[in-house]
Amino acid sequence: MESQQDPPQNSPLFPFTPESMMQNPLEPQGLHDDDIDWVNLFSGQNNFLGDAKAIMECTSSSSSSSSCALMAEKSDKEKGKGGRLKKTTQPRFAFQTRSADDILDDGYRWRKYGQKTVKNSIHPRSYYRCTHHTCNVKKQVQRLSKDTTIVVTTYEGIHNHPCEKLMETLTPLLKQMQFLSRLGSTNNAAPSSLL
């Protein structure tokens, strides 16, 4: 096999993103557009719980659903010292945005649950949780002390529900796609002599 080239470690585009999340965009992906049910995905009918990597492996492999459930359960906890189980850390993603506003609209609804002063910075760090009842995603918002025009937003975890703003925008399109798919399936059953 050919050796794969890793992305540069000091990438200016995603300075706080872990290397494991950085992928070469030219590499083939495990899922193809044909494998994804976009209507169900955006309408929130799929319940994506657990690790995204486990979901990708389950959808790309031909393993049974029970082994996928076991894999998702094992990914939530690891063995610690003394045989105890400890939870794994959630993935973190950080974005730097040049903005005059501290609160940036990302399409999700957030509840502020804390704020604290940060050493060597005049700007406090704010802590938020996603308001969806099954979602445990948190975010931290803070201004950079070196450049106060930049807001650093760090997300911890992956949302297990669709984005509210995205759904408001896509709902008419999804309804039209469902209508056209039903219309197409009824037209395929009709005789073609009418043409």
Automatic annotation (TrEMBL):
Keywords, sorted A to Z: DNA-binding, Nucleus, Transcription, Transcription regulation
Sequence segments annotated as region (Disordered): 1-30, 67-89
Biased amino acid composition, Polar residues: 1-12
Limits of the WRKY domain: 99-164
Subcellular location: Nucleus
PANTHER family membership: WRKY TRANSCRIPTION FACTOR 43-RELATED (PTHR31221:SF369), WRKY TRANSCRIPTION FACTOR PROTEIN 1-RELATED (PTHR31221)
Protein name: WRKY transcription factor 56
